[in-house]
Amino acid sequence: MNKKFILSVLLLAGSLAVKAQQVGASPEYIKTLTAKWKGERFADGRPKVSDALLARLKNISLEDAWGVLKNKGFVNQFEGDWQIINPDSPMVGRVVTAQYMPARPDLLEVVKAQGAAEGRGQQGGNNSWPIDILVDGDVYVADGFGKIADGTLIGDNLGNSIYAKSHRGVIFYGSVRDVEGLSAIKGFNGWVKGTDPSYLLQSTVTTINNPIRIGRATVLPGDVVLAKKYGTVFIPAYLVEELVLTSEVTALRDQFGHQRLREKKYLAGQIDSKWTEEIKADFLKWVNNYPGKLPMTKKELDDYLKDRNY
């Protein structure tokens, strides 16, 4: 093969590789990562799961959400052992990801130059870059490689900026400072691995809206996070609607089962195993006379229960 041709191919490949090394992922790349999502998207390419679904998700238990994901083959979506700023306030939202790494001078030069080329602010630290792109309903999720001392990704100033843009909070595999100030921001919440009074040192953001690791979980931009007192679950956008409805039906089944067990109408083994036709009919009658407001429409419930194996 002609040596000049081989050299040209190698140079072209090298040129494409250099162009691909952006701090912020392109909309095209995010669309490729989330190709199974068929609905509306943000300008940056992330799936735009509806506010109505997010509101319903907030009432879903971690166990029910995890169970649906496990049955779909998603076994690496949970992370626990958090310090939570407001433990009794759950949070749901659409994920914006950021990856941090220990700093080194040559890498910092490249990141700063590429950030400037992408129009990112050059004053202050680059830990403000992910915050600059947040919109309402976003949750800022960052891998701070577990650094606590000198690994504080935000304090109360940046916390106020985050809440002003997203009306949500943060999930950091790292730390924060100014916890008193952060806890005073009404509506803000944070799941972090630690707190420290120090400033962020010797860390740099390397990518925004790329896949990241949060402990045991793999997280993609545009995932939806369910964050509660006992952990966080990261849900692929295209599965949110099915997960919410399945979990809502599971919660209804549990409520029915608990009530019937308290009434001593059935034995525990009958409720915990495949239901008989008698129990199925009893459940449908119970649902049709449900005393409160169902979390889903009656049509959604009827369609879901049709041909379901109890």
UniProtKB/TrEMBL annotation:
<protein>
    <submittedName>
        <fullName>Dimethylmenaquinone methyltransferase</fullName>
    </submittedName>
</protein>
<dbReference type="Pfam" id="PF03737">
    <property type="entry name" value="RraA-like"/>
</dbReference>
<feature type="binding site">
    <location>
        <position position="178"/>
    </location>
    <ligand>
        <name>Mg(2+)</name>
    </ligand>
</feature>
<dbReference type="GO" id="GO:0032259">
    <property type="term" value="P:methylation"/>
</dbReference>
<feature type="binding site">
    <location>
        <position position="177"/>
    </location>
    <ligand>
        <name>substrate</name>
    </ligand>
</feature>
<keyword id="KW-0460">Magnesium</keyword>
<keyword id="KW-0808">Transferase</keyword>
<keyword id="KW-0479">Metal-binding</keyword>
<feature type="binding site">
    <location>
        <begin position="155"/>
        <end position="158"/>
    </location>
    <ligand>
        <name>substrate</name>
    </ligand>
</feature>
<feature type="signal peptide">
    <location>
        <begin position="1"/>
        <end position="20"/>
    </location>
</feature>
<keyword id="KW-0489">Methyltransferase</keyword>
<dbReference type="GO" id="GO:0008168">
    <property type="term" value="F:methyltransferase activity"/>
</dbReference>
<keyword id="KW-0732">Signal</keyword>
<dbReference type="InterPro" id="IPR005493">
    <property type="entry name" value="RraA/RraA-like"/>
</dbReference>
<dbReference type="GO" id="GO:0046872">
    <property type="term" value="F:metal ion binding"/>
</dbReference>
<dbReference type="InterPro" id="IPR036704">
    <property type="entry name" value="RraA/RraA-like_sf"/>
</dbReference>
